[in-house]
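Researcher: Good morning. I'm working through a list of sequences from a screen, and I'd like to move beyond sequence-only analysis. For each chain I'm collecting a predicted structure so we can compare shapes side by side. This is the next one on the list. No need for commentary yet; just the structure.
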Amino acid sequence: MIASFPNLGHSWPAFKTLLECFDVKVVLPDLTNREALKIGVKYSPEFVCLPFKSTLGDFVSCIKNGADTLIMAVDCGPCRLGFYSSLHERLLKNMGYKNVRVIPLNQADLLEFKWLNTFFKVSTSNALIKYSMMVKATIFFLKKAKYIEDIQTAEGIFRAYEQNTGDTTRTVNKLLKRLDKTNTVQSLRDFKFVIRNNFKYIDIDKKRVPLRVVRAGEIHVTLEPYVNLEIRRRLGEIGVIIHQSLSLYDWIIHRLHLNFRRKWLEHLANPHIPLDIGGETIWVIGEYINSAMEGFDGFIHNYPFTCMPETTSRTIIEEKLKKKYELPVLFISLDEQSGVEGFRTRLEAFVDLMNSRRNLKLKKGRTEKQVLFANHNNFYRNDFYYKCIKFLQE
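Model: Good morning. Structure tokens for this chain:
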């Protein structure tokens, strides 16, 4: 048996380790690309969301690379994600892949440990050994997921300061490959120093005062670079700091009921949407309010076309919150028809708008450093963000 899983941005080292700790042979899909998306679009229902189509294309890539068992996370609630695994399996069989199985990974409530059934199904070890594997797999998965979040945090900051375009991207790719090969307790414990040292070697210009933008939205289009037209890289290379709290680790901690930042965002969003309607709706609204309170220069909301929960959050921001908080916001609806050129033009116009807004603040007597680091000592950040900011302020 050879297992695989669809792409989700930088998250692959954590998922790979999770399976390998159960003695499962793993192959990775090719990076999501135009060919994979074309396959997904061809065989998927026309009005299903973009993540469904790109994931189907990734599964075909997994099969071509030798996989016969595919792991797909599913969820409860109104989001269509809960139906992905069964629909993908049926579509793959209709496409001629008769000997492939898609196993759902239940993430409804991780504390109920239903997710373990997925790995017990794919592991060939006896029951007693499986439980010892579970402990190791959980520790390694959480540690790697946290380091991936730290890499993402530093990437969003350092790219706006890099002197040589591409240095940050190369550093991120090198760190992800090294993290994949880091599989002992001691080396994982020390990996935080590896991240810091690698980013410190990037040649940066500390005199810059970049724009600061918060990015939020549906998890798949937010984390997967090809699907979101590499918005993080494009904005970073034109000198914009990207703060993105959404990550694999952020989601897992939320499912373990330990994500107090998300609880804070739920508190902020409650007057405007008091119940969960699926997707990231509640947290997107909370992120927008909190971003305005923190003094960010802009907010980007990306989501799949036809996604009802995310469209609802867009409507609330446009009709109610934008008038109150006056934080510039760019809505990006993504599907297989999204083009790069028009997208680039929208980003450039949004950056011009944020620059104009910042210049107004500077005319009111605030210094550039006050504008850049305004209210950054907020509950909103993780610890690694503080360390990156401290390095830039030295």
